[in-house]
Amino acid sequence: MDTAAGVEARLPIRSDMDLVWVRQHVRHAAAKLGFSLVDQTKLVTAASELARNTLVHGGGGQMETAQVTTGGNGGLRLTFSDSGPGIPDLDRALSDGYTSGGGLGMGLGGARRLVHDFTVETVPGSGTSVRVTSWVSRPPRLREDV
Amino acid sequence: MPQHETGGAPGAPAHEVRDFLRRRSEQIAQRWADEPLFRTVFTVSREEAVEAGRAVVDALARVADSRRVEDPDAAGFSAVREQLARMGAARSRAGLSAAQVSSELAALLPPVDRLLVADLERERPERLRECSTALTVLMGTLRLVAMQTALSEIQALTDRQRLQLLEVATPVIKLWDGIVAVPLIGTLDSARSQVVMETLLNAVVDQHARFAILDITGVPTVDSLVAQHLMQTVDAVRLLGAECVVSGIRPAIAQTIVHLGLDLGTVKTRAGLADALGHCLDELGANIVAAAPGGADRR
């Protein structure tokens, strides 16, 4: 199955125009891997939130997309990384309504609810990397913390 | 190394190239007219292609005269910049990639270089090499100028389109007495939503609207920033004494908004534009009823 072409990419996130590019790429990649319309929309929305975080809070960075497979099930993994100031209090940043940038404060926590797997690595002073994965046909897991 | 500006027996290689270009202008133009770049762009007559080639040779000679063969900003190039841009654009329209156009420009060098070698065969080998190098550098710079011109055209086009997009995508439509609507299309970033808000608020005031419908059917992604912009617009419309209805929320977007955790509870929403219009007409007390049989219908 030759779906890697058009899925794997590394896109810069340096301006608002780049966010448009990120969204379009994620939408095309998700459609190519067979995501349903709802799942495409969720993943694109999560990518939009995370890319904006990278731009606004991380001072710009990049997104890497990769196709992943486990047990015959395909998925799409997005990694957003920046070398900004990092997130000092991750638990607080993940809680709804907390914002340091004048937004609604739903970005990080909201993005976590829109994807299947979500990990954040942040080092204060040297940057943040957010990795999210969604699977094509696995039913979403119930989360204890929601 | 002697630094004679003028006089000295063997002049600067650039000046040798200049003299060669002026002497051989006609032959070079004739040879270029057979190259794909000139042949396919100037299709009216061969004379037209030769004419264009002569203009380029003239420009090259002027640049060589100023001894700035490696400088794409040399004054001599300005005379052919526009012509090069037209040629590049014509080749792009014919489906060539930038790399292919570039290699067509590179193909202009060998015929000229062959002429130069033939002309200077009596010179010392290192002199010939110097002149040939100067010519090669000069032709390379020409290629750079052509590509630069093409790039700046594309840049200008992109800038214009960006402005157009900002302007075009925000019409306010009067649907009924007291009801205005804005169909939003594309990405709702901060700049766009500012324009939308201004035009909508002005329309509400100008038309004494009691209802404003924001239709987001054409907005592909509703994330928290878009939602924030929508809520701000709704609040601002409310301050003017009108009611705002957001319509065009597709099922996938609705599910995403719920998962994202956005609270649009304060915003009146409808699935489609027709539902939103129906709601507004209801509130206005304007009832639409089917025409009575045999009434207005005269067939």
TrEMBL record, chain A:
Native source organism of the sequence: Streptomyces pilosus
Gene3D superfamilies: Histidine kinase-like ATPase, C-terminal domain
SMART domains (UniProt xref): HATPase_c
All residue ranges annotated as the Histidine kinase/HSP90-like ATPase domain in the record: 38-138
InterPro entries named in the record: Anti-sigma-factor_SerPK (IPR050267), HATPase_C_sf (IPR036890), HATPase_dom (IPR003594)
Name of the protein this chain belongs to: Anti-sigma regulatory factor
GO MF terms held by the record: protein serine/threonine kinase activity
Keywords: Kinase, Serine/threonine-protein kinase, Transferase
Keyword Kinase: yes
Domain of life: Bacteria
CDD domains: HATPase_RsbT-like (cd16934)
